[in-house]
Request: fold
Amino acid sequence: MSMGNEILSKVLDSLKTKVSDFNYKNWFQNLSWEYNEPGKVLIKVPSKFVRDWLTDHYLELIKFEFFRHTELEHQITFRVGKPSFKNLDLFAGQTPNTKAPNSASQTPAAPSKEATTAAPANKATAPKEPNKQKNSQINSNVISQLGFYPRYQFENYVVGNSNQLVHAACRAVASQPAKSYNPLFIYGGVGLGKTHLLNAIGLDVLKQYKNWRILYVTGERFTNEVISAIRYGKTYELRKKYRENCDMLLIDDIQFIAGKERTMEEFFHTFNALYEKRKQIVLTSDQLPKDIPNLEERLKSRFGWGLMADIQSPDYETRIAILKKKADEDGIPLPDDACDFIANNVTTNVRDLEGSLVRVSAFASLAKLPITLDLTKEVLKGIISISQPKLSVERIQSEVAEYFKLKIADLKSKRRHKNLAVPRQIAMYLCKTHLQVSFPELGSKFGGKDHTTVMHAVQKIRKCLDTDPSIRSDVDQLEKHMSL
Ligand code: ADP
Ligand code: MG
Reply:
């Protein structure tokens, strides 16, 4: 393997671990990557949509991965053109007989007549989609120097039941930094909008306080900075940067520092210094501090000093609203039935929702066809099953909670009000019927209940299926929705 291909394969391997299966399959795996000169990478993409989407979502990550493996800044260039054979595989089923005999990921694309678009060195100069640049008050160079994603602003963030509280908390922090909640700790699963909100806070603050020194880094980058400061004897500079020359610290995916002793130590002192000086700190994580393995206790407790706010998966109405907003922003004519189909079938997270929309619209524009329900079904048919998480107690709990508009915590609580008890019993019944799981195990997954409680619940719902049409219909609909 040539040096270039070796680097490429390392980068692709690590990208695979960083993006969801869905998006890796959807995009990375099907692009044609070339590494012909040191430091220069060419990625061939089938359409401008794909280019813009990748630029917005993954350019920084791609660059970062090349840097991590080579310690060299790489120039990433996208070429929009006819899809390579490999790209046509992306739309398998639509293009029979076009499979390439050899579709290694470096298969050269068909020659493109379209101009090569050099990917910008930073996000701020990324190609803009329609209606995007409403916010011109902040200098785009400043945005990019600080590492922000220009499109992740409050204006582009759709608020629904699942994120109302966290959104309100972020707005409060942005309008009165260090005066409302400090630190603000945002947690939730992948693709639910944590990075978006963190950016939105930073950009909003920047609009009000142009000269503020806002530091926005991921937990991973912070870790790497600590490692390199230690290696090159620059800890003094690092401390100056984070503890003294900083008016606001935004750290994305803080869970990454867990288990890394020197980094946790450094962060502990940084936190204390900023907190004492009443500087706002906002952190995001994929789980609650207490559940982050190998995170020092003293950090866990500090993370809880302010407000902890979670983001849940968006419900159906919010999924529709998000799709409509994205379609509108990107000028994609998305009919209601196609929108409804996507919202009903891609229920995992917002990133997958966006990925599906972009995939449908990329295909339609490539094939020069209007977006219809049939086209949407066809394009997403291989993807939808990937986006549905495997059946588990947690998934059943989350589907039942969404269906009855409750919180998962309500299903696990001991409260006996009928509005909670019946959904809880239905959830237990569905778990017992469709999963190989014991009564005691279920008891513990439902907030530490006795196994006899679960047994009674399951028996009760079984009986009700024959006698209570409303419970029968709830169970039917839930089973249908989870394809059981
Ligand atoms: P996380 O950091 O939680 O993994 P991101 O912030 O990267 O998730 O969000 C994934 C994608 O979904 C981003 O493109 C983001 O803009 C979009 N997104 C997430 N939540 C919303 C929302 N409520 N409204 C609009 N877009 C959203
Ligand atoms: Mg994120």
User: Anything to note?
Assistant: Residues 3-85 form a domain with the GMP Synthetase; Chain A, domain 3 fold (CATH 3.30.300.180). Residues 194-195, 252-253 surround magnesium ion (ligand 2) (CB under 6 Å).
